[in-house]
Amino acid sequence: MHVLLILMMLAVLAIARTRNLFSVIVLSGIYSFLMATVFVALDAVDVAMTEAAVGAGVSTVLLLGALHLCRSDEAKPTHRPWIPLSLSTATAAMLIYGALGLPGFADPDAPIHRHVVPRYLQNEIDIPNVVTAVLASFRGFDTLGETAVVFTAGAGIIALLRRRKKNGKEGNPDAG
Amino acid sequence: MQDDLVLRVIGKILIPYILLFAVYVQFHGDFGPGGGFQAGVIFATGIVFYALIFGLQQARAVISDGFVEAMLAAGVLLYAGIGVAGLLLGGNYLDYFVLSSDPIHGQHRGIFWVELGVAITVCGVMIKIFYMFASHGDGGEHRQ
Q1: Residue A77 maps to a domain
Q2: How many structural domains is chain B composed of?
Q3: Is residue B68 part of a domain?
Q4: Interface confidence (ipTM) of the complex
Q5: How close A59 gets to chain B, by Cα (Å)?
Q6: Is the CB of residue B90 less than 8 Å away from at least one CB of chain A?
Q7: Residue B2: predicted pLDDT
Q8: Which of 103-132 (A) contact B at CB < 8 A?
Q9: In total, how many domains does chain A have?
């Protein structure tokens, strides 16, 4: 577990240092696979499957497709990013400070395990996989919203890329 | 990449199992890990793999753009339709207990259709985004 987290940290540092975008994409694929392994170690197999298929599979292919459309080396920054760096350091420090106040991992006395979780685990609807029961039945409205978000994302991509293609076709004769 | 013999053979062997695994994850989601979202993504991964090896045109011949766009909407409509079916049968919106005479069976039926809706939309969106990105360059070929 700690080995995985240290490897993930190394991957992130390498991503931040590297200027070649192809290596960055490969490194982020490695990061996603490490993340999926962490999820497996935490017994969250559903999330691990999603992370491996989306994070390491589809998004790597999409990023490679995007890389095909632009230059493969990141330009050198024109100024030192001190303000963004200090902002993100401050946010990270705040999050770490907040995380110290959370109940311990898998603590049975944590507030969440005394509130709705007992009812979910009783499983009055007789679905062996509690994750599916929670997602599709107990929180059906949430999942409907999520599906609508995925649909909207797809519709947005269609609207964006299709218009640009048409403009390119119409714009080229004028410009040339 | 279309002339790579190793990739073509491996792809032909693996892709049916990827698609089959997606269907397994979909229909076994009540009992084991998985569900609509995972199944949709894995199915889309199989199609993307196919398009990478055999070319975008081949993939578009298998699953056309119009069909993918119909999938986008059909999944959400199926999900929302299950909610309306609950209303018509005398329950609340997205109430699965009324979908069958046995409440537990009604829950199973509701979850089955809802997960199918999620899978169809997710799969459609993933394939569509890939198609849009891949066809945006010249001919949709990836430089590797």
Answers
A1: no
A2: 1
A3: yes
A4: 0.84
A5: 9
A6: no
A7: 61
A8: 125-129, 131-132
A9: 2
A61 CB within 8 Å of a chain B CB: yes
Q: Which of A72, A99, A116 is the last residue of a domain?
A: A72
Is A25 among the domain residues? yes
Does residue A127 register a pLDDT over 90?
A: no
A3 and A67 inside one domain: yes
Put simply, whether A158 touches B (Cβ < 8 Å) is yes
The answer to whether B122 touches B44, Cβ cutoff 8 Å, is: yes
Range of the domain at A56: 1-72
Report the predicted TM-score, pTM, of the whole model to 2 decimal places.
Answer: 0.82
Mean predicted lDDT score pLDDT of chain A: 83
According to DSSP, residue B141 is labeled P
- Beta carbons of B33 and A131 less than 8 Å apart: yes
CB contact under 8 A, A69 and B32: no
Q: Is there a domain that residue B85 lies in? A: yes
- Across the interface, of B73, B117, B125, the residue whose CB is closest to A153 is B125
- Closest Cα in chain A, distance from residue B47 (Å): 11
From the list A68, A137, A147, the residue facing B111 with the nearest CB is A137
Q: Residue B143: inside a domain, yes or no?
A: no
Does A37 reside within a domain?
yes
- Judged against a pLDDT cut of 80, whether residue B1 lies above it is answered with no
List chain B residues with CB under 8 Å of A144.
79-80, 83, 94
Res A69 pLDDT > 50: yes
The 3-state secondary structure of chain A reads CHHHHHHHHHHHHHHHHCCEHHHHHHHHHHHHHHHHHHHHHCCCHHHHHHHHHHHHHHHHHHHHHHHHCCCCECCCCCCCCHHHHHHHHHHHHHHHHHHHCCCCCCCCCCHHHHHCHHHHHHCCCCCCCHHHHHHHHHCHHHHHHHHHHHHHHHHHHHHHHHHHHHHHHHHHHHHC
Which residue range forms the structural domain that includes residue B96? Answer: 5-136
Look at the block and give the residue holding tokens 């790579």.
B4
Residue A164: predicted pLDDT: 55
